[in-house]
Amino acid sequence: MTDPITPSAASRPPAILQVLPALVTGGVERGTVDLARALAQAGWKSYVASEGGPMVRELERAGAKHFTLPLSSKNPLVMRSNVARLEALMRELPVDLVHARSRAPAWSARTAARHCGLPFVTTFHNAYRGENWFKRLWNSSMAKGDRVVAISRFVADHAHGRYGVPWTRLTTIPRGIDLGKFDPARVSPERITQLSRAWRLEDGLPVILLPGRLTRWKGQTVLLRALAKLAKLRGGKRDFIGVVVGDHQGREKYRDELYALAAQLGLEGSLRLPGDCNDMPAALMLADVVVSASIEPEGFGRVAAEALAMGRPVIATDHGGARETVLQGETGWLVKAGDADALAEALNQAISLTPEQRQSFSRTGIAHVRQNFTVDTMCAAYIKVYTDLLFGRESDA
Asked: pTM surpassing 0.90?
C-alpha cells in the first residue's frame, strides 16, 4: 500500500465528515472512532455526525468533533430535514468528503453531499437482507458511494452481486483490531484473577466463552445445546464451564429463556451468564476456546478476530466473514450454523488440545490478525480511499 497524500499537499488540511445513526457500542461505532482518531493524528480535520451516545466522549478525546443530529430516524420527513441540516454543516465547517456508515443517514448524506459537490463514500457493514423490493431499495443507499467499502470479501461479493456495485468502485477493507488493547502481553495477571473470581470460575476446568449481545441470531441457544451434548461426549462429565457474556440490551425475555434452557439441560453448575463485560481482553485470556455461533452470516465477525489476536482458538459458524478470519484446522474450526452436534464435536477437540497444539494455534492466530486485521492497516486503507478521491482518480460514479 502506498503512503497516503499528507494534508500539507493541499492549501488546508482535508476535512472528513463521517455520519452514522448513533455512537453506542458496536463494530460500526468502534470503526468510526478508530478512523476519526487516525485522521486527527494525521493532521486532518475529523468530524462525526450522529445522534450521540456513550462513545462521544471517547471520540472527542481522540481529537474529532461531534455534531448531534437525528440521524438514526427512518421517518421520511426527518430524513428530508436531515439533508438541509447536513448540507448546512458541510458548508459551514467546511467539509471536503462525506462518509456514510449506515443506511438511514446515507440517504440524507448523499443528497447533501451532491448539493455541495462533495465526494461520497459508503461502508457496507453487512450483507443486508432484501426480502422485498422496498428493503432492497432501502439497502441500496449503501451502494451509491463514489467509493463503496466492504468490510470483508463476503460483503464485497454481496454488494457486487445483489446491488450491482462495479468492482471499480468497490474496495475491501476489513475491520481492524486494536493491538494495543488486544495483546496477551498487556493483560496483567491481576485483571485475569479479578474477572475469574467475579465469574466464579473453578481452577482446572476449561472455559468455553461466547461473547456477544444477548440476541437469538448470535446463537446462544445453540451453544447451550452443544454444551449438553459435549457432556455426553465426555462420558457424562461436565468438566468444563461455559460463559455467555454480553448485555441483554432490554431483551430480558430472551435472557430468561436462556436461564430456563440451561436448567432444562442440567447446565446450572456448568454455565455462567455474567452480563456485560468491560474487560474483554482479560475475558479472552480466561478462555480455552472462544465461540462465535451466529445463526446468520456476519459481515466480519469481530469476536473471532479479537480472540485470535489474544492467541485463543476459535470455533465459528461456516459462513460470512468468519471464513476469512478463522483458518480451518490452523486457528480454529468452522461448523455448520445452528448445528449443536457439530459444535459439540469441535468443542471437544478444542478443550482436548495438547499444550503443543494450543501453542501452534495461538502463534498462527496472532500472526494472522497482525498481518491482516489491525486498526493501523484499516485506517491507512481508508485514508488511501479518501486521498484517491480528493487528490487522485476521478470518481467512477
From this structure: no
**Helices 103-116 and 76-92, packing angle to 10 deg:** 50
CB 191 within 8 A of CB 282: yes
Whether 2 is covered by a domain: the verdict is: no
- pLDDT, one tens digit per residue, over 183-222 is 999 999 999 999 999 999 988 899 999 998 888 989 999 9
Amino acid at 299: G
Q: Give the model confidence (pLDDT) of 350-376 as tens digits.
A: 999 999 999 999 999 999 999 999 999
Q: Do the beta carbons of residue 386 and residue 38 sit within 8 Å? A: no
CATH (domain of 42): 3.40.50.2000
Number of domains in the chain: 2
163 belongs to a structural domain: yes
Whether 336 is in a domain gets the answer yes
CA distance 148 to 167: 9
Instruction: Answer yes or no: is 383 within a domain.
Output: yes
105, exposed or middle or buried, with CB in 10 Å at 0-12, 13-18, 19+?
buried
Q: Where are the beta strands (DSSP E) in the chain?
A: 15-19, 45-50, 65-68, 97-100, 120-124, 147-150, 170-172, 207-211, 241-245, 271-275, 289-292, 314-317, 332-335
Q: Which string of DSSP letters, residue by residue, matches 3-43? A: PPPPGGGSSS--EEEEE-S--SSSHHHHHHHHHHHHHHHTT
Q: Domain range for residue 154?
A: 7-176+374-391
Residues 45 and 66: their CA atoms lie apart, in Å, by 12
In the predicted model, residues of the chain with pLDDT beneath 50 are 1-9, 394-397
CA distance linking residue 309 with residue 177, whole number of Å:
8
How many angstroms separate the Cα of 249 from the Cα of each of 214, 215, 252, 275, 276? 7, 9, 8, 10, 10
Q: Give residue 311's region: left, alpha or beta (phi > 0; psi -120 to 50).
A: left
226, 255: one domain: yes
- Residue 298, helix vs strand vs coil: coil
Whether residues 19 and 168 fall in one domain: yes
Tell me the residue type at 73. Answer: S
- Contact yes or no for 42/6 (Cβ under 8 A): yes
